[in-house]
Amino acid sequence: MPQRMAIMLVAVGLVFAAIFGFEAFRARMIQNAIVSLRNPQQTVSTITAGTQDWQDRLEAVGSTRAEKGADLSPQVSGIVKAIHFQSGEKVEQGAMLVELEDADDIAQLQALEATAALAQLNYDRASQLLKTDAVSQETVDTDLSTLKNARAQVAQQRALVSYKSIRAPFSGRLGIRQVDLGQYIAPGAPIVTLQQLDPIFIDFYLPQQSLAKIKVGQAVTAGVDTYPDLEFTGKVLAINPLVNTASRNVQVRATFKNSDEKLLPGMFATVDIEVGAPKSYVTLPKTAIHYNSYGDIVYVIEKSKKGADGQQHEVAQQIFVKTGQTRGDQVAVLNGIKPGDVVVTAGQSKLHNGSPVRINNEVPTAFSANPQVSEE
Hints:
Elements: H1 2-38, E1 42-48, E2 50-54, E3 57-72, E4 78-83, E5 90-91, E6 96-100, H2 103-130, H3 137-163, E7 165-167, E8 172-174, E9 184-185, E10 192-207, E11 219-223, E12 232-243, E13 249-256, E14 268-274, E15 279-285, E16 290-292, E17 295-303, E18 314-327, E19 330-335, E20 342-346, E21 355-359
Helix pairs in contact: 2-3
């Protein structure tokens, strides 16, 4: 009997132990479920931080302009008699472009030349007679003054005749013709633009703090949105010796070879000037940086402590960083991140310290120093 009682007591104890163990296990599972609901696993993209050599550079925007450029126009009024050029063609210095009616001016010139010739004869005759005292010195002086006046009038009229012929003041490419045959044009009326395109200048502005970093002859690269895949190389031609008192900027001019005439005056251009020696920086995609009023933040993936299942899980830890220059999709991180750290690049908006994460890098993160806009 006592033996049977002992067996019953042992059986009852085992039943209560099983019930207690089951309840403890269920409570632990419920607790883990509640924790997981409160802190669910988030899917993120990541990148492993590495170092890159960066060349410090100054960036600016500017405008192109021709080395020589002018909108040609007449100095005098007249009727267009002849046009000797086609729109858009190249011309050499001195080439005849437009002639205005000049018959009246030429006739006036011929009359003045005749008067000057007569004045020359009178002066020569008086000079010979002066040697024999047949005329006075006063007469010779008067004839000489008359001759000089006649010559001056001839020179003036020749200048007026020359104004009726508009020539190219320098070699270059012509624009679109603005006048027609037989048209009356007034002084200063536009005829055509003439631009010398090789070389071409780009004028831009830099803050006064940059003056110590640039010098004449320094290499410059430029780009225009007309040719997004092309990079133009040139050099600093001149630095304005005057700083603008309103903006504290200084004007800089760079010169570029332009034999293919891809760059035209008036284009908007971006300019880069490399300064100093290359430096090594830890670089991250811009999307990895979370900016707020407290500072710049990134999330780093770390291994958690062993959980109830005895396994380690990946969690996100918040780190404040100091950022530097940007280049395309990249940003330099000056401190807070070291090479080899796994950094979250997408999905961090739902993260906080200790958030469990699942890494999915099927979609690559934009991380180019020179990103290109897709045409699709």
